[in-house]
Specification:
heterodimer; A: about 575 residues; alpha/beta; six-stranded mixed beta sheet; B: about 600 residues; four-stranded antiparallel beta sheet
Chain lengths: ~575, ~600
């Protein structure tokens, strides 16, 4: 609830004109709708009374008729303008919110808390944003106008018949309470169940699709289908409950309107018989009672999603906070010193690094010291799972060690501005992400303003030039999900080309040639060497061929780095794959 | 996606053209989704109609309620005219309200339940189609299928449960309401008759544009979802290249596009509801003025000779808003229809893909199935396979019977994986035959055959669940000791210490939490667990493994090859070195290289 208010407040701050203007404009047509019916009822009774007294009373028909016309046009055009304004503002706000949420997700991922979750689950958080449109459009606007108009109507009617106006208010309040209740606790539990079932189904179906090869061999297909069916059952149950609730809410509002008409009329008639009310106002009351519950209809339609929205608001707000924190951190870092790389000094210096994935887990790095002089080439080898990739991630500030000091070009890593760090150092290797986009755009991730000629140069350095030239659309060739259309080695080389566009001082290569066949690996290594001539290089590897040209080789074992003398002993060579 | 979108847009253009054509042609072209949807929900239509009828009945009970109220008010104002005691009128209205409430809820329940049933049936059939699929079929991204199964089918619910009942009601309720007004005044009824049908006509004109716009909007929405997922997956790369900020801008920009296209849809929707508002307000205003002037005695037409009474006037005025209520509900539910049909289009598209590839003829499933012999030899004779126009395998011959380690080598892209897929029955052969124990694989049934082989695929898939559950996919009955032994064999038993909870520890989808090498070795352990396997197939088992671990894997494969044939596709010399037999696949032709000297050069 608090998060919802917070997000509404944000909207108010970002779009004050649309927010308050929208509320005001929403109020006008709704009020006009009630006034239209009320005046019509009043007009008919008044004319009837005038007709009965055979024209003895001079009745101002033209003013009543023009009132009716005014209210009618206010209702029609006010509604349209109000909707366009509020919706437009909401979507503009959501577009900003979405990028804020993305920033939060990136920040949270880099803190390491989310690394176990898959992107599919993350995208659900993003769909939360879409649910928030209802917060303003279907909750704040109708609720505000319903409350204000009901209050106003009651105050006006109070002058005619206090008793009837109390009856009217009581029924309206009862209706609001019923709606609020239906959007309450049980609904909240249902919303949670719905999300859980939806996620379960999503995971099952994508397992079923992606893993159907292994499943059909190992006989899990049927099992997986049963599990998916179970999720379907659950999902349908909750969904059905939700739809029933919505339907019942609407029925309640409609019944309430009839009850209101009947009760209000009864009290108005009673007031008249007591001599407290004029005759011509009776129909006024009956018609107001007829029109007032209309205000609740849009609330009734959205009551089922209130708790969903508030859950979404919670998640979105926490991400926004993370995003803001990370932005604040980046701002604080922004005037850090620029790293300088001088020959004879260390380009990269790590002291006593300790790292474990969780406080309880065994330490991956247990006191690692490493100094890379500017322009040197260092290779770190070690068995798989020894923490070589973790070391690379720490250097690139993708992981934060529990303790230890890191300096890049003489500047403390923790306080270095993001853009300065990324300009000074880059990582190529194990996990390369190819975006669902053209080759050119994939390359320009590294440097937005790179010219086509520069892209071609980078591609040729990476040994991809012939391949791209062979494609019909050259640089504009579209790559599919996960780099569809490129083999593993080609993807690796594209990542290399991307890094080359950056041209940083420090290159970290994380298992650069893994999964590539011998010939391709040699080519990639050759172009990597050409690209990094004169630069500071840290390679993490288990392949003998990557050791060529290294100034220094270190072994990472049991969380510690140990020096290895060159040339390599046979024992070390045996540990490396020398294909 | 874009292509599909283009098709849809074309179709709507055709729709517009046809709507504009002067010749009134019946049976406008419907989208494939629309046709499919109508067929798919046919079994529930009866229930939906019954629900709609109850709800319609509830709406019609407003006629007596309005009459009671009008008479009671008139009675108070003009004691000489027709009238009713206010108390009795109120009581009767309340009783009718209770009846209406129950009718409405009952009808609603029937409709919602019918919708739920239809949705359930569709989901179930989609799932079984997915499971019946040949695994070599190329499918759209798993995320897309998941979103069809989860979101799109759900969108059909409101279409059935909300839109269809309203549509069914629309043909009856307004007509009866008009008839009741006509009983009092033909002029007022005429007004309603003119204004009412204008609403659907106007909305249909707007609706054609709305469909086009909402197709475009769905396209933008899908793009946005894709972009977000893509960027989230590549978060690390974006950070490394300092491109996070730029991605934020991209997302904001696409959000802006989404806003523009959504607003285009909404403006049209608002326009149509404004039209509705216009007609309903105009009808109220005209009725009120007509009734007022009639009562003043200035106008004296429209009510069958005798002047309009106050009770009659009030009654007419009270029916008018209720007359427009179902129309308004129809307008509000109209987007349920658009969403339902758009979702159906996507489902049909996927369904078509599933059906095209439901190749039962690869290996018979339903035919007479011969039990698989416990031992035998796999013989491949003159196997040729092509994909598209490219020939992948040409005249391949191979025989595997004795326990041995057989390696098929060759650079990537030469058809090693295709050969494996054919043996597994994932892919059909153009020519030639694959047989086991003298009988073609077709005789044993696809599932039986596949489940008698053990596989270590190039990109092994681990599933959401515990280590134990993942391993037991190969052997349901295996106990923990057996599982641990298998892990040891595959040199991956250190996982037990690394993953909290050991065998009961969770690994995520995609085997999150395991390195690539660990996943592969884990999959080897799974493959080893199937003891009655006739054959073990491994695709690049040592890729991504360091020297020491690669040795262990080779040793494990060697050990497995003591009992049964193991077929390995690889270009790793160390696996090749320990092979009993080496075959080379070159341009689709399999060459036996028993003389090792030839390979040395």
């Amino acid at each position: 609830m608090r998060s919802s208010l917070r997000i509404i407040w944000l909207l108010q701050k970002e779009e004050p004109l649309a927010f308050w203007g929208g509320l005001f404009l929403a109020f006008l047509p709704a009020a006009a709708g009630i006034a239209l019916l009320a005046v019509s009822g009043y007009f008919i009774t008044a004319t009837a009374l005038a007709g009965l007294s055979a024209g003895a009373v001079a009745f101002n028909t033209s003013s009543a008729a023009s009132c009716i016309r005014l209210y009618a046009s206010m209702r029609i055009f006010g509604r349209y303008i109000e909707r366009v304004i509020t919706h437009d503002a909401t979507f503009r706000f959501l577009a900003n919110l979405r990028s804020g949420v993305f920033r939060g997700l990136v920040a949270r991922e880099s803190n390491g808390t989310l690394s176990q979750r898959s992107a599919t689950a993350l995208s659900r958080v993003v769909s939360d944003v879409d649910q928030l449109d209802g917060l303003f459009l279907r909750l704040v606007v109708p609720l505000a106008s319903a409350t204000i108009i009901t209050g106003l109507t009651l105050v006006i009617l109070w002058q005619y018949s206090p008793m009837a106006s109390i009856a009217l208010g009581a029924v309206q309040a009862a209706g609001l309470t019923i709606l609020a209740k239906s959007g309450g606790h049980r609904q909240k539990a249902q919303a949670r169940k719905l999300n859980a079932a939806r996620d379960a189904l999503r995971v099952r179906v994508s397992d079923l699709v992606r893993g159907r090869r292994d499943l059909s061999v190992f006989g899990g297909l049927e099992q997986q289908r049963v599990a998916a069916l179970k999720a379907v059952n659950q999902l349908d149950d909750v969904q059905e409950q939700n739809e029933l609730t919505d339907m019942r809410n609407q029925a309640v509002v409609s019944t309430m309107s009839q009850v209101m008409v009947a009760v209000t009329f009864l009290f108005a008639a009673y007031s008249y018989q007591q001599g407290q009310m004029e005759l011509k106002h009776i129909a006024l009351f009956a018609f107001v009672a007829l029109a007032l519950p209309e205000l609740l209809i849009s609330l009734a339609n959205s009551a089922g999603s209130w708790s969903k929205m508030s859950g979404a608001a919670d998640r979105v707000r926490s991400l926004l906070t993370v995003g803001q924190d990370s932005e604040a951190l980046q701002n604080a870092r922004s005037n850090s010193e620029t790293p300088s790389f001088e020959v004879g000094k260390d380009a990269l210096n790590l002291k006593d690094i300790h790292f474990a994935y969780t406080p309880k887990a065994a330490a991956i790095l247990d006191g690692v010291d490493l100094a890379l002089p500017t322009g040197s080439r260092t290779v770190v080898i070690g068995p798989s799972g020894a923490g070589k990739s973790t070391l690379a991630a720490i250097v690139a500030r993708l992981q934060t060690p529990q303790s230890g000091a890191i300096q890049i070009g003489g500047v403390e890593l923790g306080g270095m501005a993001e853009d300065k760090l990324r300009a000074a150092l880059t990582v190529v290797g194990q996990r390369t992400q190819i975006f669902h986009s053209t080759i050119a755009e994939n390359l320009r991730v590294a440097r937005e303003e790179a010219t086509d000629a520069e892209l071609w140069e980078a591609l040729s350095h990476a040994g991809l030039k012939e391949l791209v030239e062979g494609r019909q659309e050259k640089l504009e060739t579209h790559l599919g999900e996960g780099g569809l259309g490129l083999s593993g080695g080609e993807g690796r080389r594209l990542a290399l080309a991307r890094a080359y566009l950056r041209n940083p001082e420090i290159w970290v290569a994380d298992e650069l040639t893994e999964g590539l066949d011998h010939a391709t690996a040699d080519k990639v290594l050759a172009s990597f060497r050409a690209m990094t001539r004169g630069k500071t290089v840290l390679m993490v590897s288990h392949r003998a061929s990557e050791l060529e040209g290294a100034d220094r080789v270190l072994v990472l074992e049991d969380g510690k780095l140990g020096e290895v003398t060159l040339p390599l002993s046979d024992e070390i060579k045996g540990r490396l794959r020398d294909d | 996606m874009t292509e599909n979108l283009a098709n849809v847009t074309e179709l709507s253009d055709a729709d517009v053209a046809e709507a504009n054509a002067p010749a009134k042609k019946r049976g406008r072209k419907k989208s494939a989704g629309q046709v499919w949807l109508q067929d798919a929900v046919r079994p529930e239509m009866k229930l939906v109609k019954r629900g709609a009828m109850l709800q319609g009945l509830s709406e019609l009970l407003w006629i007596p309620q309005a009459a009671l109220l009008a008479l009671a008010i008139a009675g108070l104002i003009d004691p000489h005219g027709p009238g009713l005691d206010p108390f009795y009128a109120t009581a009767s209205i309340l009783i009718l309200a209770v009846i209406r409430h129950f009718l409405r809820i009952r009808g609603g329940e029937i409709a919602v339940r019918a919708a739920s049933k239809a949705r359930h049936r569709l989901e179930t059939s989609l799932l079984s189609n997915l499971t019946n699929l040949s695994p070599a079929t190329e499918l759209p991204a798993s995320g897309k299928i998941a979103s069809i199964a989860v979101e799109h089918i759900q969108a059909i619910g409101p279409y059935l449960g909300r839109f269809l009942p309203i549509q069914a009601r629309l043909s009856l309720v307004p007509l009866i309401l008009i008839a009741s007004v006509a009983y009092v005044s033909w002029f007022a009824a005429l007004c309603l008759l003119i204004f009412g049908p204008l609403v659907p006509v106007f909305m249909a004109i707007v609706g054609i544009r709305a469909k086009k716009a909402s197709d475009r909007q769905l396209g933008v929405l899908a793009d946005m979802g894709g972009l977000l997922l893509d960027r989230l997956r590549g978060m690390e790369t974006l950070r490394l290249f300092g491109a996070v900020k730029r991605s934020e801008d991209d997302i904001r920009k696409l959000g802006g596009d989404f806003r523009t296209s959504t607003m285009r849809v909404l403006r049209i929707a608002f326009l149509s509801s404004t039209a509705l508002e216009l007609f309903s307000a105009a009808a109220i205003a005209i009725t009120a003025i007509y009734v007022g002037f009639s009562l003043l005695g200035e106008w004296s037409f429209g009510a069958y000779g005798s002047p309009l009474t106050l009770a009659g006037g009030l009654f007419v005025l009270m029916i008018v808003p209720e007359y427009f209520a179902p129309l308004r509900a129809f307008a509000a539910a109209y987007h349920d229809r658009a969403a339902g049909i758009a979702a159906a289009d996507h489902i049909v598209e996927l369904q078509k893909q599933l059906e095209d590839d439901g190749q039962e003829d690869i290996i018979g499933t339903g035919r007479d199935v011969v039990p698989l012999p416990a031992t035998g030899a796999l013989t491949i004779r003159n196997l040729s396979v092509s994909r598209g126009h490219r020939k992948i395998l040409a005249d391949v011959n191979l025989s595997l019977g004795e326990p041995e380690l057989v390696v098929v080598k060759g650079p990537s892209g030469t058809g090693k994986s295709t050969l494996m897929d054919c043996i597994l029955g994932f892919l059909p052969a153009d020519q030639g035959q694959i047989a086991y124990g003298g009988l073609p694989l077709t005789s044993y049934g696809l599932t039986n055959w596949q489940q008698s082989i053990s596989v270590l695929s190039q990109n092994p898939e681990l599933f959401h669940g515990t280590l134990r559950a993942n391993l037991r996919r190969a052997d349901q009955a295996a106990d923990d000791a057996t599982l641990t032994q298998a892990l040891k064999l595959a040199a991956v038993d250190e996982l037990l210490a690394k993953i909290p909870g050991g065998l009961s520890g969770q690994i995520g989808e995609d085997g999150k939490g395991l390195s690539l090498g660990e996943r592969r070795r884990f999959a080897l352990a799974r493959a080893a667990l199937r003891e009655d396997a006739r054959l073990i197939i491994a695709d690049e088992p040592t890729a991504d493994l360091d020297g020491a671990t690669a040795q262990k894997v080779v040793a494990a494969l060697k050990k497995l090859a003591h009992n049964k044939p193991v077929l390995v596709a690889t270009h790793d010399p160390r696996v090749v070195g320990s092979a009993d037999r080496v075959l080379t696949l070159k341009e689709g032709v399999l060459v036996d290289l028993n003389e090792r000297e030839g390979e040395e050069q």
